[in-house]
Amino acid sequence: ARASARALGVARVEWLGYADSGMGADLQPDPAGQTRFVRAPLTEAAERLAHILRAESADVLLSYDARGGYGHRDHVRVHEVAALAAERAGTPRLLEATIPRDVLARAVRASARLYHYPSDFDIDAFCSAFSARREITHRIDVIRYAGAKRASMRAHVSQTRADGADRTLAAFLRIPRPAYDLIFGREWFRDPALPPGAPVQRDIFAGLP
Q1: Residues in CB range of 169: below 8 A, 6 or more apart
Q2: What is the distance of C-alpha 111 from the center of its chain?
Q3: Would you list the DSSP string of 135-177?
Q4: Residues with Cβ within 8 Å of residue 131, at least 6 apart in sequence
């Protein structure tokens, strides 16, 4: 994770110390000395994040949408914790990272022509996740950072394989660079303070002091 952050030019990495909650049907017992994130008290985790937001005088906090992207229980918890932390810290803007479903469906099905997904990967279910297009409030052009994004993904080696098999990130890294830049050259967010159907913004800082 630290190597991945360096590839993006991140200046500070903070660990809250919670353990991964996993994706299986059953939530496993907590590891020794740690609490799985979904078991952490909401107010406790939110206050720890709010402390960092205050220390950084953060203008924008990036989180996940209410579905946690593709539904990972820890991503959903991030959504819940971030919303409360932003409120407590008085952070001016909370943006929920997401993807319009129709764009995601095209990208996943296109990549499936280049990469054979594992048999348990449900493309249709994956393409019904994230957010409807009308919920998107920000569309940001980041194509000039595509190289840094790819380097960050490549550095995050723990996310490329699990149980001896490739994970989705590994498939993304096999996409040829021109196609990769097109797929990952935009980022989408939802501002929960704005109504669905609001004009799409192109700058996450627009309107802030």
Answers
A1: 153, 156, 159, 160
A2: 19
A3: G--EEEE-GGGHHHHHHHHHH-GGGTEETTEE-HHHHHHTS-H
A4: 65, 67, 98, 99, 100, 101, 188, 190
In the three-class reduction of DSSP (H, G, I as helix; E, B as strand; rest coil), residue 62 is classed as strand
Residue 82 CA to residue 95 CA, distance in Å, equals 10
Bridge partners (DSSP) listed for residue 94: 61
Q: Which CATH superfamily hosts domain 2-8+37-190? A: LmbE-like (3.40.50.10320)
pTM: 0.86
- Whether the Cβ atoms of residue 114 and residue 78 lie closer than 8 Å to each other: no
Q: 107-141 burial string, b = 16+ CB within 10 Å, else e?
A: bbeebeeeeeeeeebeeeebbebbbeeebbbbebe
Q: What is the mean pLDDT of each run of 10 residues along the chain (209 residues)?
A: 95 94 90 96 98 98 92 95 98 95 76 68 71 92 96 88 74 88 93 90 94
> Three-state SS for 76?
helix
